[in-house]
Amino acid sequence: MNVVLWVLQVLAALLYGSSGVMKVFMFDKVSDQVPSFGALPPEVWMGLGILELVCTVGLIVPAAFHWRPRLTVLAATLLAFESLVFIAVHIKYGEITSMILSGVLGFLMAFIAYGRMVLKPIISPRLPRLRARPNSA
Q1: Most CB contacts within 10 A, which of 26, 86, 128, 131?
Q2: What CA–CA distance (Å, rounded) separates 22 from 52?
Q3: Geometric angle at alpha carbon 109, from 28 and 45, rounded to 5°
């Protein structure tokens, strides 16, 4: 299960990373080609792109370094909720294929969050406790 979750996390990070880059750095170029980009102001799309980029890092780095692995769960959960926003936008614009894709990605992110929280959590190593030495005086 650990390998499956890692593969899904890496694939999701690549997908959401490229989507975030497009929303933050290339929005003006692609917004004319995608009708549903008119549903929200450009600033909101940029904010969603930044969220995707931050969550891309959150999907990989905390789990890879065993540092605050709950951040991986949080990143996946945020992306699952973000997909609900996209489903609503795609319904409004009648973009059925994009709506289905957003639903599948949302389910995938929910599965990663559940997997890293319940099925195969990443355990952060605990530092050894220092014992107090008895006074030798």
Answers
A1: 86
A2: 10
A3: 20
Structure tokens at 135: 């006074």
| Residue 109: closest CA among 41, 44, 56 | 56
As a whole number of angstroms, the distance between CA 70 and CA 59 comes to 10
Tell me the pTM.
Answer: 0.82
Report how far residue 37's alpha carbon sits from residue 82's, in angstroms, rounded to the nearest whole number.
Answer: 15
**Looking at this protein, which amino acid is placed at residue 68?**
R
How confident is the model over 18-70, as pLDDT tens digits? 999 998 998 888 878 877 787 888 898 899 999 999 999 999 999 888 888 89
pLDDT, residue 130, reads: 57
Report pLDDT digits (tens) over 89-134.
Answer: 999 888 899 899 999 999 999 999 999 998 887 777 665 565 666 6
Q: Are 84 and 106 in contact (CB under 8 A)?
A: yes
